[in-house]
Task: structure prediction
Amino acid sequence: MALLIRIHPVDPQERLIRQVVEQLEKGAIIIYPTDTIYALGCSIFQPKAVERIARIKQVDVTKARFSIVCNDLSDLSIYARQMDTPAFRLLKQHLPGPYTFILNASKQVPKILQNKKSTIGLRIPDNKIAMAIVERLGHPLLSTTLPGEMVEDYTDPELMYENFEKLVDIVVDGGIGGMEVSTMVDLTHDEPELIRQGKGEWLV
Result:
């Protein structure tokens, strides 16, 4: 049975953040708020938890397209291979924010999270709870959308708790969530390529 933990969206309680992180370090799966929709997540260094999330999503873990949430740009640069100056400038301009940037994965990204192209989606959401969890954890969180098409079901944490209490370990209630996904941009080629238009404006 999952825990429902209510955390203040503006001033996250350190005690509750610590409680979530202690469980993540033991391999827990959480549902947590971002600056777009609520996400499924776990520590990127807990392969069994990653496999559990793949089962919840009903996807093959080797083909899943998971993203990771980093603490800041210097943290992000650890998990992405050498970026050129224009790419870094774009990241600095748009992050933190409702964007997922596809970049070439560095060797620091666990193999289980790398696809055949060795790319990874990287996020720095503008959300105090997500950032407090990642900062306390000391390394990125896996981030992926919840299964299903009904995005409106994923705005109310109590409803998510009802739907997923037997599948996840913690539902973090940070208030009503958004209904738009992140804007996804591929930076692995010479020019940025818009893959998915979401909440973030893309005018480049």
